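User: My notes are a mess, but here's the protein and zinc ion's SMILES. Can you give me a structure?
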Amino acid sequence: MPELPEVETIVRMLAPHAAGKRIDAAELTLPRMLLGMPAREFAPALAGRAIERILRRGKYIVFELEGCALIIHLGMTGQLTWSPAEYAETPGFVRSITGLQRSKGVHPVDKHTHLILNLAGGERILFRDPRTFGKIFLVPGRAWPAHPRLSILGAEPLELKVKPFLKQAFPEDSARPVKALLLDQSFLAGVGNIYADEALFRSGIHPKTRSRDLRDGQRIALLEAVKAVLRKGIRNSGTSFSDYRKPDGSEGNNYERLKVYGRGGEPCRKCGSILSKSVVAQRGTVHCPECQPAPKRRK
Ligand SMILES: [Zn+2]
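Assistant: No problem, the inputs look usable. Here's the predicted complex:
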């Protein structure tokens, strides 16, 4: 599932192509991905509107348009790609800095392409999502931060001031495992399974540690680790574990740099112990039994 670094990469790559462009026509082919309005009203509501800005909040991509915002959540397998005008009819090819290339990531419009934004000038933004857990919705004006799906989101980890956040946001009485807390979007927005496991490894914290048992020093280390692994993910333009692709169709480079996620049964890159695989907070979880010792419970 695309997390903060993947969504941030998409936004940063898409923005120079799409900002300032006008949407000529929108085609929505899977109405159930659209929330909050009848599908027949969707395309007319977008036609003719200019894209003013593209930004990210948590794992949501926000297209600020003239008079409204188009919001996309990529779900588990969503891909948002951009196809240039001159190659729009040559599916399977993308222009990259090294020239025109065939890409296994950019697909021609196919049965998994559920939304097409046709921009003035012939460029297109394609939303493709094989497992269809993605979501699309429109919010009038500039009220998107108050939309129920966005207003519940917690702090943006990259903008986090760690010490004030410690007092304000850690639930003191929580018996939840810290892994579950990290996945809770109302705590920190944008962290998912990959970066939660990576941050726990980096801070030496066992994923099953109860939140209330974390010492202040561990909390600080954990939050700093969250920021560090997210920044590293962005630097490597995201983790392509399965479906995630950049807007030009290419894969991110962070997967081979992960320390624990996807590496259960393999040796720890730090101490050589075999990484342990388990289920925490209903999610597959990998940790190092040596570097992340089992938690001691506090009273
Ligand atoms: Zn280790």
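The first strand starts at residue 23 and ends at 28.
User: Great, I'll file this with my notes.
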